[in-house]
Hints:
- The chain is α+β, with helices and mostly antiparallel strands.
- It has helices at 47-53, 60-71, 126-134, 146-154, 174-182, 217-222, 224-229, 242-252, 263-269, 318-327, 375-385, 410-413, and strands at residues 116-120, 139-143, 160-167, 171-172, 186-194, 198-201, 212-215, 235-238, 257-261, 272-276, 285-292, 304-312, 333-340, 346-351, 355-360, 362-368, 388-398.
- The strands form 4 sheets. Strands 1, 2, 3, 4, 5 and 11 form a 6-stranded mixed sheet that branches. A 5-stranded mixed sheet has the order 8-7-9-6-10. Strands 13-16-12-17 form a 4-stranded antiparallel sheet, sandwiched between helices.
- Helix 10 runs antiparallel to helix 11 (375-385).
- Its EC number is 4.2.1.91.
Amino acid sequence: MRTLLPxxxxxxxxxxxxxxxxxxxxxxxxxxRSDSSxxxxxxxxxxxxxxxxxxxxxxxxxxxxxxxxVNGHSNGSLNLVPFDNNxxxxxxxxxxxxxxxxxDLSPAPMHGSNLRVAYQGVPGAYSExxxxxxxxxxxxxxxxxxxxxxxxxxxxxxxxAVLPVENSxxxxxxxxxxxLLRHRLHIxxxxxxxxxxxxxxxxxxxxxxxxxxxxxxxxLAQCEHTLTKLxxxxxxEAVDDTAGAAEFIxxxxxxxxxxxxxxxxxxxxxxxxxxxGIQDDASNVTRFVMLAREPIIPRTDRPFxxxxxxxxxxxxxxxxxxxxxxxxxxxxxxxxxSRPNHNVPIRLVDEANVGTAKHFEYMFYVDFEASMAExxxxxxxxxxxxFTSFLRVLGSYPMDMTSWSPSPPSSSSSTLSL
Length: 418
């Protein structure tokens, strides 16, 4: 996937362990926004955080070792990498970079106030909106990759991370399921966010001048048919996120390209909405999960959902037996997803009369409507353990029961500004 995102005050992933390469492009509009409705903080607020994560992303073992030393009050240093103050805007260069303080490493605030929530993308992304819905008045921290958002929480730079996992039109986001297994964070909540896509371009650009449309792969997939109906038979190019596509067009003054992003992204980056509500279906909803270092205590006084991942043992009808453990206890499954088992991707089976058969090995992700505080859920997982070689509870958390209104049908709202 091609990355077109310009530099922004976000936590970034770097392949170089010792240096931070200054950006050649300045972050526009949102870097020092004073809009009270915007979620997040300015670049200078996260200089030290950015400096840490600009180093090579550490392995899981290194992360656990670092967290252990912090909790154990070790005298070891956090090994900050150099930060090039010349890469800052002139009005920011006078502010000195400060190391993390005990406040940065303190426990998460209560009741969601002043929570630091990491998300992938730039201001105006749908993930940022999901963070604001889950934790009003939070400090949203933009990250250039999902991996960095995980690391921000593991290194105590952020208290939560928001992660999209599935969309009602585009389906599952497979990469993020793999990250859930690779890292040791816990799911502590979910948000279902209605997604309202717009076609954005620079002011004065007409649709007949467009030669390509850029957006996140999910955004392109969710608007595929509508773009064709609008006569936009142009190249469609995938980038890292929807708001990043809008930022790229504005920062580089690209007049032959349109972006699929939110109306808020148009406001932030000074773009014009050529078409509104261009998703193929009005009921376009993305489900996000909230991640934390520690799990929450499951309860029974409100609807809960539990997410697990398992690998089944060798044998016949194993998956059927696993699913039966939930069916016999009247537990509804809301999601089942299979992903390749990267540790053992292929299993060879010798058949006496056939030869050697190759069976693909999978990890199975399951969401079910029950709290781990309920005896039926505990008994179901006890039975599941009998048929699995690996079982992990990713989280037991409250279901998102908030009501939402679908976007207007695209046929009536997708009127082009000519």
